[in-house]
Structures are given as C-alpha cells and as structure tokens.
Design goal:
Elements: H1 10-28, H2 31-45, H3 47-61, H4 66-74, H5 85-101, H6 121-139, H7 148-187, H8 190-204, E1 206-225, E2 228-244, E3 249-251, E4 263-270, H9 272-277, H10 286-295, H11 305-314, E5 325-335, H12 336-341, E6 355-363, E7 366-372, E8 383-387, H13 400-403, H14 405-423
Helix pairs in contact: 3-11, 5-8, 6-7
Length: 424
C-alpha cells in the first residue's frame, strides 16, 4: 500500500481523480452538454438585436447613450436636455392597439361554429341502425336486402335531420365554450399579461406570449367537517397562458419566423426556493436538482450584459450579486438517441435515428426534464412572437422607438442648440 506521511492512500486518491475526470468527460459529451452548446450559439447570435433593444429602452426612458453623454459632458457646461418624444409615440401606439383589441364590456375574442359541422361517427352508425329498424318494422320484411333502397332513403332523411340538429348543437357548444374561456381569462387576469406583451411589441418591435400548455394549479380551501374545519388541498389542471419578455427568448438564428425555426430556448431566472420547488413538478429529476442545490450554494446565474444595462437604465442597484439559478427551457427537434439517453420512452415502433419534437429543461449541462412535445395540434412551440412591423427576411420586428430614432436624435440636438444659444 502506497501511503504519504499523512497516511493517505495515494492510489485511492489517484483512482478517485481519474474516475471524476472520466465522469466529467462523459457529462461534457452528453446530450445536456450538446444542448447547452446549442443554447450558447443561439444566445451569441442574438447579441446585435439586444444592443438595438437596449437603445430602444434608453430612448423610451429619456436617457442618452453612454458615448453621447460622455461627449456632452466633455464640452463643459452644455445642455443635456432629452425631449421625451419617443415615450409619447410608443404610448400612443400602445393605446391604439389596446383600444382595438379590448373593447369595453366585450370579450376580445369570439367563437363561431363552422358552416357545416361534422357529424359524429357514432351518431352516424346509430342513424343507420335507426333507419334499418324503422324500415324493417313498417315493411315487415325479413331480409334487409329486400328494402335496401328504402333504408338508404330513410338514412338520407335522418342524415339531413341530424345535420340541421348538429348546427344547433355546434352553435350552443360555441356559446358555452366562449363563456368557459372568458371565465378563465378573467380569473387569471390574462388581459393584463397580454398588455405586457403588447407594450414590448410597440417598444422593441416584438411581443411574446406562451400558450397551449397546461399546468397543475394547487389551491387550499377550508371546509366544515363534523370535527370542525379542515384544510383541503386541491389540484386542478388549467391552461398555461403568460406573457414572456423577448429578452428571455432565443430562437433559431437561421429562422425568419416561428414556422421555420428548428427550435427556441427560454431562459428562466429562479430563486433558490423556486428552483427547489421544481422537484415537486412531474417529470423533473429530483436527484439532479438536489445535486445542483448542493453544488451551487450561491446559484449559477451570471448576469448577461443586457440585464446589467436594463438595471442601470431602470435605476436598480447595479452592484447586487445574483444568487439565483438559470434554468433553460428548450422546444424543438431532438434526435431519438438523445431522448433515449435522457430517459424518454419513444415506444416500440419509434426509430431512435429519427428527429422528434421535444421539450427539454436544462440547468448547466444537466437535463432536468425531457419529454416528447405534449402540445396538441402539431405546434412545435408554445411561444407566439408577434412583430409590430415585420422586416423582410428577419425574425424580429421593428418597434416605434427604432422607427423614430433619427427624429428623436434630431429633436434633442435642435433643443440643445436652442437652449445653449439662449443661455449665452
């Protein structure tokens, strides 16, 4: 046995180091590491448009760009007035869009049945059986082949009756569904979340919403029992509808719309408590979450430059240390082999070599959750990104602030010159 002066087994230490190195090498070549690399690629490709958004935000907030402000300060006692023209124009566009969508006392959506609703196949089968029974009873025939023409004729009559009845049922169903949707939207204050997305659309050029997925909503109620009052915990499956800041979305850099995007990442910045609560969500890996909580005692979130700029523009403490966790949510194409590596059951008839639409949650290079895309209707992603004004061959739209950047700069320069000359 090879020992040091302190009595440590050098062989065991060396083997442990080699084992840790092998595990680290395996992790870095894993599906999670490859997806993390793809996220970094998407994130780096968005840096230029981020700079434009920060300029839009400064313009909206009535603040000069750092280089412009430095030049003005270098000129001595000169005017630094900023004319708040951009905010006025952005809010005018925002108010106009809001007035068009949200009419007082009316829902901002409507449901209408199709002109020719489809007949339920089960009802069609019942209709044919009814036609046969009626014709056989009236005619007294013993064999259906003897009254086949009469059965066909009666079946057509019943079909028309059912079609007319189906239209009434469809209209009533649409009315009831409208009430159900309106109730959900009111209870969850969805109109305010939509307004958040609309404001970003007017200001930055694009707004985003998340729709089409479901979440488990937990609620507690007090109910009376023979022994007194007891707290009852209930869980309901409800639609997930929320506004998402475009600063947190990273789409395929080669796409010009969500239709041709291969995938999209969303970044979540969570407190330690919020990150730990993911263990209670179905599908998340509790073991990996516990490991990350143990390793990253101060979180793993490192502020991006646009986060620091936004804090500075908003006047928030720029020097505070982030102790949060950065979790990345991916929607897009994933190979069957990678999904199998992440523990997803593709089914017996699925081919591992094929590509699948999937949803994957990632922290560092650890896959916290992976599943086949659960969204119905063939949608690749639950994120809807709407431009204020679309630019040809570009993913992101153009907002009011960027449209009038030259006008804002000209107005600032003209007013500064006027005030400087007046002060002489």
């Amino acid at each position: 046995m090879e020992l040091t002066e302190a009595g440590i087994n050098l062989k065991e230490v060396t083997e442990k180091k080699n084992q840790d190195a092998e595990e680290q090498s395996a992790e870095l070549s894993s599906f999670g590491a490859r997806l993390k690399h793809l996220y970094e690629e998407y994130k780096n490709s968005r840096s230029e448009i981020e700079d434009e958004w920060i300029k839009d935000l400064r313009q909206y907030s009535g603040k000069y760009e750092p280089d412009v402000l430095a030049k003005l300060e270098a000129q001595g006692n000169r005017s630094k007035v900023y004319v708040g023209l951009t905010r006025t124009k952005v809010m005018a566009a925002y108010s106009r869009v809001i007035d068009l969508i949200f009419q007082a006392g009316e829902p901002f959506f409507s449901l209408e049945p199709t002109p020719n609703p489809e007949i339920d196949p089960i009802r069609q089968a019942r209709m044919l059986n009814q036609a046969v029974s009626e014709v056989m009873a009236v005619s007294g025939a013993e064999d259906i082949s003897e009254v086949e023409d009469l059965v066909q004729q009666r079946s057509m009559e019943l079909q028309q009756e059912i079609r007319d009845n189906s239209k009434d049922i469809a209209r009533e169903s649409a009315k009831l569904m409208s009430l159900e949707i309106e109730d959900f939207l009111v209870e969850n204050n969805i109109d305010e979340r939509m307004k958040d997305a609309i404001l970003e659309m007017c200001l930055f050029g694009s707004g985003a919403m998340k729709v089409g997925t479901f979440k488990i909503e937990k609620s507690a109620h007090w109910r009376r029992s023979p022994d007194g009052y007891a707290m009852i915990l209930e869980e309901d499956i409800v639609p997930e509808v929320d506004s998402v800041s475009i600063f947190d979305l990273y789409p395929d850099p080669y796409a010009t719309s969500m239709d041709d995007a291969d995938g999209i990442f969303r970044r979540h910045i969570l407190t330690r408590k919020q990150f730990g609560e993911l263990k209670n969500v179905v599908g998340f890996d509790k073991k990996k979450i516990n490991h990350l909580l143990e390793v990253h005692t101060d979180g793993n979130h490192h502020e991006a430059q646009h986060e620091k700029d936004r804090r500075s523009i908003s006047g928030v403490n720029e020097y505070a240390e982030s102790t949060r966790f950065e979790v990345v949510e991916y929607w897009g194409c994933v190979s069957g082999l990678d999904l199998i590596e992440a523990g997803v059951d593709l089914g017996k008839e699925a081919s591992p070599e094929d590509e699948y639409q999937a949803n994957v949650w990632l922290c560092d290079h650890h896959v916290l959750k992976a599943q086949i895309n659960p969204i119905m209707g063939g949608y690749k992603s639950p994120y809807l990104i709407v431009p204020y004004e679309r630019n040809p061959h570009q993913f992101w739209g153009v907002g009011v602030a960027r449209m009038m950047r030259d006008s804002q700069q000209t107005m600032n320069a003209a007013v500064r010159i006027y005030l400087d000359n007046t002060a002489k």
